[in-house]
Task: structure prediction
Amino acid sequence: MSDEKKNGDFLDEVTSEEYKYGFVTDLESDQSPRGLSEDIIRFISKKKNEPDWLLEFRLKAYRHWLTLEEPDWALIHHPPIDYQDIIYFSAPKPKEKLKSLDEVDPELLDTFNKLGISLEEQKQLAGVAVDAVIDSVSVKTTFQDTLAKHDIIFCSFSEAVQNHPDLVKKYLGTVVPYTDNYFAALNSAVFSDGSFCFIPKGVRCPIELSTYFRINAANTGQFERTLLIAEEGGYVSYLEGCTAPQRDENQLHAAIVEIIVMDDAEVKYSTVQNWYPGNKEGKGGIYNFVTKRGLCKGKNSKISWTQVETGSAITWKYPSCVLLGDHSVGEFYSVAVTNNYQQADTGTKMIHLGKNTRSTIISKGISAGKSNNSYRGLVRVSKNADNARNYSQCDSLLLGDQCGAHTFPYIKTGNETSTVEHEATTSKISEDQLFYCQQRGIDMEKAIGLIVNGYAKQVLNKLPMEFAVEAKKLLEITLEGSVG
Amino acid sequence: MEKKIKTIYPLEEILFKHFGEHTDEWKKSDHPSVTALRHEAISYFEKHGFPNQKMEKWRSTNLTGVYEEPLEIFDRHVAFDKKLSDIFLCEVHGFNTQVISMLNGSFYSPENHEITITNEGVIVGSMASAFKKYPNLVEKYFGKISGYQDDGFKAVNAAFWRDGVFVYVPDGVEVKNTFQLIKILNQPNLMVNTRNLIVLGKNSRLTFLHCDDSVNHNTGLTNTVNEIVLHENAELELYKLQNLNDDSALLNQTYVHQDANSRLKVNVLTLNGGMVRNEITDQLNGQGAESQISGLYLMDKEQHIDNQIFVNHNVPNCNSSQLFKGIMDDEATGVFNGFIYVARDAQKTNAFQRNNNVLITSAAHIDTQPHLEIYADDVKCSHGATVGQLDNEGMFYLMQRGIPYSDARMLLLFAFADEVISKINIEALRISIEDMVKRRLRGELSICDRCVLHCSNPEQPIVFDIDISKI
Result:
């Protein structure tokens, strides 16, 4: 009895833990009127001074979007989204053209300092090139000179449209066409900015590239688009982090990430997603509907997705690999944590098209409070994918008796030489493990932290060092003590 | 969802026409509750129509071809004019069963004993007669656990069923004989809707063998709904044996309600059949209930098998396991959709699920979806699925000991299948099934258009051409 009470206290402590990124920055922003129409799309396009072909692309996507219906197959519940009540474009108002970091709006720098990403600090200590995106408009990209030496292009999407239109035109929408799904069509119509990265032939990117996304303005939706291309023999490790202020209303985030990898190239894409998850009654929070897909176009190419999902009221996200080139490799490592009333329906798709393609899926779900956490994944082996190999492992950990953990794998195999294996378990933290730790003088809370971290270690180890530390901390904040 | 333009298939038109023409006539003989159910079901069907591939449960099974067949809705009673053995030549050697037969969807009995009751009070017979003779007993259970919603075929069955088998085992009775239900279609182009109800009272026990067979190469669609109620501490062993011709379609929906400490054992053996779909929904509604559902499917040519297994743990302390294994040859396609649902507070649940498949050719295709939906924390649930080929090392081991390739392959395939076969408790049946599977693996059974059970004969056992002494 006293144990239960103690656990209850822990739960209270944890659930009352403030979302520490929930502040609002007083940035003046430039906004479009509410609602969505062809005029709004023209407004966004004009504001960004875009070429005609891009406007055409947006309008085509918008017209297609109008014919679609919001998908309802995921295990998530939310009130209907009023797409006419969203501000589709919001940019921090530029005071004047920026020349160096010192000229960046001090309020903005403050925001990033609060987030723990001091642009200055990162620039000097970590050697990470940062592209910061606020309300889906890129505000500052660091380390341009170093990257330029290697002919690597890393800039905001809008800059890429202005400076490298041929590259953008060639690859935009080739992996995630605007017809792909409801949210991809919406994003293709209204995307405001994002990051663009091009690794030329034979270049191994010497530093880790990173984008920080932040939603700041109220009533806005965030729609950014990332396009990453690695030419033959290229390599890049790309990190993405996200936060948003604490607000009572739900905000929509519908992003697209496209990755194209040529012969012998490798892209490692890591995400630490910590959008505002809503308060403990489930009010507010970000609806995170994201389409991420990588195309292993060349032989021996490799894409590795690593994600730590702790935020968002709703996560709907399936980073996928299309393994087209022979001998290409796809990997997916995920830790998804849900607490309170959060809902996550996340997983991956591995589409084996080429011969001797391999994929690995490691997914760790942790649910606490009254949340629901689902893994939904597809492994498809097409007829010509000889000797394709897949191994999937999906584990779920339940903390408390009010939450849910679900596994929905889809395996479609059409080749007799392929081997597909799927394993999943669902359990709670073992009493024996807890007893073992406590017996050795580790208190309940620390023991749980230890066990959960150990449980997620397989995935956390795949993260670059800077992120691994952050992810570990995040896990602790979200989970400590929430075991009953 | 309402926006989509609805296609009316020929078969749907036939069904509506048939319902319109016969509803008054049916009303005269039906129990009022059945009439009400028929009308509710037909209006559900009018609204939703047949299932399509946009539905999660029907994603991988396309029945459009069947919907376009001009089938005859067959619900007439067939008078007994031949010996049963002329139509059906089924016996398992050394295995005594009480045979119940159905021909083209109606109960078929040599002495016109539509329904019988034993000294112990076990009632077996035609569903239609049972409704007349024991209306209160039947009405208490009929349609209660399956309903008519969720699925077009379920609604069609509820609206059009005319007969089926009713079995009632009273409290405390252990039935010694195995009941064997044989269902045959012997006329071309029929759609048959049958409905079976099995009720087991407290502490009772029953073994039931359910055979679906074809006796010729006619096209046909069988749409069966089975309702099974297991009261406290009852035990049911259910074997489903499916060996149909390549042009037939079989839809089998089974709904089980389990009370406390009841035990269910289901074994589904699909050896042949153009399109076979087995949907089993098991509701564990009493603490301590156990369910063990296993299946084996050996498909070749252009056959399609679809196994949909839903096990719902609604209360704490229940155990369930699912094991399905399949061998897919030629251009066969298969679907396994296993679902474990654990309700909130259904603590101390143990639920396991496994699906293993072997693909023999590159044209064969298998979709497997082992799903878990869990809302309780003190549970042990796991699932596994594999799709692969025969173990190379195993093949090498056997071949280096002088066993020819084809025999080695057969041995390994048989070993793969044996995990399911060995779960059959009745020895005579197990031996007979082992025999059939061996034949099937040698490609003999698919050309046999007689009943599968007949093929096995202890005087002429099937052996592989292997000299065991050399191994």
Remarks:
- The radius of gyration of chain B is 22 Å.
- Residues 446-456 of chain B have pLDDT under 50 and may be disordered.
